[in-house]
Automatic annotation (TrEMBL):
This is FAD-binding PCMH-type domain-containing protein. One of its GO terms (biological process) is mRNA processing. GO terms for molecular function: FAD binding; mRNA binding. Residues 649-664 have a biased composition (Basic and acidic residues). PROSITE patterns: CRM (PS51295), FAD_PCMH (PS51387). Its cofactor is FAD. Residues 60-252, 243-434 form the FAD-binding PCMH-type domain. It comes from Brassica cretica.
Length: 694
């Protein structure tokens, strides 16, 4: 067997390269050796260095000192601990190294060198995807989620999902990007408007902090966590610029409960259920408003920074709510003083004391007592705080969970103790376990000693339940009727406001008279005419009369087609057209195109100087009038329907109060008397919309 000498030389060089210490440079330009004891797969060949030196943007070209190709997250954690000077070879010795830069790189689609580490170490995340067990992408059995390794591409996620007959709810437009790289920018794709960005569909994140601690943020925490470089960089600096420490993640809470869950998890006191409790290595959690601290008070090195401004954005009903009497304001965490001042001025009041620079968070200035211009008259801001909402709801939930766990343990101990007790009665040992005070004992006693309910009692209970349900439904419908009548009054006021410029004309007393023969002739000619005018939802307005006069300029008759109206409504429109135009009504006929109105201009017709009468509505106002009419008619129908349903329910309630004698054909289930359709979803939506308007 022959051996290629050149191939053996290359293999030997690669082996020596991986086993020898690697020389890199720290951020201060100091040479640092990566010892062999770190057990890292480090590449320093020119091809790997060149591939990791530039990105998609082609703006920067900075060579790293080495490229790490990790086979597990533990290698990344060891590298980060060594970079921070916190790596021990054994239990007695600990080495420290000058800090050097470490950057994670996926497919290299950054624009300005965000994944570069000049002189440091670039972590090739694709190696984790190649060595992931059992695969880089594992879709769950039910197809609801996928476990994706770091460095895996979206095309691999899509292929694995399609193999199971499912698809990701949202993914990037260009599939040959790493999943972690698009998540770092929130993940804006084609499905983002329907299912939210990619970061909103992440269930769990396996995060390695700056200290090299592997922390798993579980799905049960239900937190909105950002790990993109922009959020990390924004949360690493404060107003003083004295410290610049990167946190591990940034929390964007939508409620104080998320902050409470994160604090419990950071303290190792978070339970997935009532039986299991997880503990996590403690990490720092800091609250950050507008970042106007001076010495990094709002920073959390390697931990989680809570962006309090998101609580102000998601506060309901608003970030600042001034009381009705204007004596105090309810301010959400993260709100700025300028928002407090705007809300107060809108109510005609002003805060007794506030900060000189208004673009500061209220909580941030309160933490420093709040020294402002009015402090000598009204005291500092902290002296004018009526109430502080410290996170207590989540703590109460935790206390309740602990109480339930203790009760279950107490029941188990009681059963165990009672099983060991034996009673001696008449010389015989009774080994029956004592169940006093347990749930099983209560159920057994109830089933044994509780009186059996007769059929009459069951019927009476059903009748009472149906009566209570009917009474609750009547109260609900009464409330809906009250709000519907209020909306009807508002609709009538709006209609009167639109119609204030409408002044319809009366029928002329000296109108021209045509004979019956002329009427039949004009009717036949008018119905055979091709040109016509169409009257729609606006009905009669100034433009309709103008078009009639323009028709009469060339012919003696005008044909008007009306669609979507009943015969009485068409007759009313015909009389209005006759009164406003000054013509003679010939006939109203039902045709295939709709109702046809034939009008004769008269023998002594003269075109008026102003074709559009000023006493009618304009086109725009006529359209608004039609909308208000439609709204009023719909509300009238809704009010009548509610009154009828209330009357029927009250009639059924009176029947239930009378002595009940069930006939042979009557239903046994009295719940069938209350129709579930009375709880209409459309009414719920209209009821909620009315509450928002009021």
């Amino acid at each position: 067997m022959t051996t290629n000498p050149s191939l053996s030389t290359i293999t030997l060089m690669t082996l020596l390269m991986c086993l020898s210490p690697t020389l890199i440079k720290s951020e201060k330009g100091i040479d640092v050796l990566l010892p062999i004891s770190l057990n890292l797969t480090v590449l320093t060949d020119p091809f790997s260095i060149s591939a990791a030196s530039h990105d998609f943007g082609n703006v920067t070209d900075e060579n790293p000192g080495a490229v790490l190709c990790p086979s597990s997250p533990a290698e990344v954690a060891r590298l980060l601990r060594f970079a921070n000077g916190d790596f021990s070879y054994d239990s007695e010795s600990t080495t420290s190294s000058p800090g050097f830069k470490v950057a994670a790189r996926g497919q290299g689609h950054s624009l300005r060198g965000q994944a570069s580490a000049p002189g440091g170490v670039v972590v090739n995340m694709t190696c984790l995807a190649k060595t992931a067990k059992p695969a880089a992408v594992v879709v769950s059995a039910d197809g609801t989620y996928a476990d994706v390794a770091a460095g895996a591409m979206w095309v691999e996620v899509l292929e694995a999902a399609l193999a199971r007959g499912v698809s990701p709810v949202t993914f990037t437009d260009y599939l040959y990007l790493s999943v972690g790289g698009t998540l770092s920018n929130a993940g804006i794709g084609g499905q983002v408007f329907r299912h939210g960005p990619q970061i909103s569909n992440v269930h769990e994140l396996d995060v390695i902090t700056e200290e090299g601690i592997d922390v798993l943020l579980p799905i049960s925490l239900n937190l909105t966590v950002l790990t993109d470089p922009f959020s990390i960089s924004a949360a690493s600096r404060d107003f003083g610029n004295i410290t610049d420490v990167n946190p591990g993640a940034v929390l964007c809470p939508s409620s104080p409960a998320e902050v409470a869950r994160l604090l419990r998890f950071a303290n190792g006191d978070f339970s997935y259920d009532s039986e299991s409790t997880t503990s996590s290595p403690g990490f720092k959690v800091a609250a950050r408003g507008q970042g106007h601290s001076l010495r990094g008070q709002a920073s959390a090195p390697g931990g989680v920074v809570v962006n309090m401004t998101y609580l102000a954005k998601t506060a309901k009903p608003a970030a600042v709510v001034v009381s009705a009497d204007g004596t105090y304001a309810d301010v959400a965490a993260g709100a700025m003083w300028v928002e407090v001042l705007e809300a107060a001025l809108a109510r005609g009041v002003s805060p007794v004391t506030f900060t000189d620079y208004l673009y500061l968070s209220v909580g941030g200035t309160l933490s420093n007592a709040g020294i402002g211009g009015q402090v000598f008259r009204h005291g500092p801001q902290i002296s004018n705080v009526h109430e502080l909402d410290v996170i207590t709801e989540a703590l109460r939930e935790r206390q309740k969970e602990i109480t339930e766990v203790l009760q279950n343990k107490e029941d188990q101990l009681r059963e165990t103790a009672s099983a060991r007790v034996t009673l001696v009665s008449q010389g015989k040992r009774i080994k029956t376990p004592l169940l006093a005070g347990t749930l099983a004992e209560t159920i057994a006693a109830s089933s044994r000693w509780a009186p059996d309910a007769s059929s009459v009692d069951v019927e009476e209970l059903k009748r009472e339940a149906a009566s209570i349900k009917r009474a609750a439904l009547i109260r609900d419908l009464d409330l809906r009727l009250l709000y519907a009548k209020q909306k009807l009054k508002k609709a009538e006021k709006a209609l009167a406001k639109v119609q204030k410029d409408l002044d319809p004309s009366d029928l002329p007393t000296d109108s021209e008279i045509i004979t019956e023969e002329e009427r039949l002739l004009f009717r036949r000619i008018g119905l055979s005419m091709d040109p016509f005018l169409l009257v729609g939802r606006r009905e009669v307005f100034d433009g309709t009369i103008e078009n009639m006069h323009l028709h009469w300029k060339h012919r003696e008759l005008v044909k008007i087609i009306v669609r979507g109206k009943s015969l009485p409504q068409v007759k009313h429109i015909a009389i209005s057209l006759e009164a406003e135009s000054g013509g003679v009504l010939v006939s109203v006929d039902n045709t295939l195109k709709g109702y046809a109105i034939i009008l004769y201009r008269g023998k002594n017709y003269q075109m008026p100087f102003r074709l559009r009468p000023s006493n009618l509505l304009t086109r725009k106002k006529a359209f608004a009038r039609s909308i208000e009419l439609q709204r009023r008619e719909a509300l009238k129908y809704h009010v009548a329907d509610l009154e009828e349903r209330i009357e029927l329910l009250k009639t059924g309630q009176e029947e239930d109060r009378e002595p009940h004698k069930k006939s042979d054909g009557e239903e046994d289930n009295l719940y069938l008397r209350v129709d579930e359709s009375d709880y209409s979803s459309d009414e719920d939506e209209s009821f909620l919309s009315l509450e928002e308007e009021t």
